[in-house]
Amino acid sequence: MVVIDGRVFHHKEGVHKFSSVVNFIRASFPYEVVSLLRKESYFDTFLSSWEENKVAVVFFGKNDKPKLRYQVIAFEYRFYGNFMYAVIGHDEVDEILMRYNVPRHGETVLVFKEDTGVAAASLSMQEISTSSLRELIDSNKFLTLPRLSSQSVFDELCPVEVAKNKKRLCVTLVTDRHTEDAVHRDALRVFVQTGQVRSERVRFTYIYRDTQWEFVKSLVKDDNNINDTVLSIVILWRPAVNKIKYKWVETGWSAVPESRSKVNLEVAIRSVLNGSGELTRETLVKQLTDEHAKGTEFAPSIYLCSTGPGCSKGG
Prior knowledge:
By secondary structure, the protein is an alpha+beta fold. The chain is 27% helix and 23% strand. It is built from nine helices and 14 strands.
């Protein structure tokens, strides 16, 4: 028996043949959790997953089908990334192997974020264990500049921290979907990548004003200084689940070098971290809208049960 997100699937042929059990588990997934690279042209399209607020994960191996552990990991992290399998030795994969220096023996996994020209993380071994896969992807499951696209994402990126001297800061750019704002998001992403503010207590994110208006509105309801030429950027801390203390960076954020946005933002963050600057505003916020909701829970569950009384979690 297999249980996937509360749905029960019964294997009626017994457990005598391992291949039969593996095929049964594969067929139990609700959709193709690991897509197969069939044309080289699909690869670059696949790497654009970051535009969906997801990382792109590519498995390389010599089997004609992705191994079961790849599928299990892909299902487990399906809300964080899109997953593809490329068969080493197939013509459509050769150029990709050379482009990213992937060895032709053993197994390799590459994780891509916004910069699709280079993998953000990689692992190559003769056989990559499930635990190693999980560790690699879990450490790289968010983009360099992720979007606050659901309450679950918000809870992970901007967790509650009661202690004032240990407060975790979320620096959030308020933006719209239109292409004019993309240059400002790109500039903030570069700011993060260059590491001008390095602290485990600071996380940089952005949020769509239209999609998450109820959340944004609770922060801007008393503000009249949000303008259309410079994007608003806020530094916030969650001392409780629904409570936020925050401050707007007065000069906002702009990709224009003359705006001195980088310097002003760095000064504002450091002043809050060292205690010389206070988060003077406070508000209660509603939960974020789940932009990816399709009637499923955020945390996946896969359980494999034999005929015995116990049931162990798969993976």
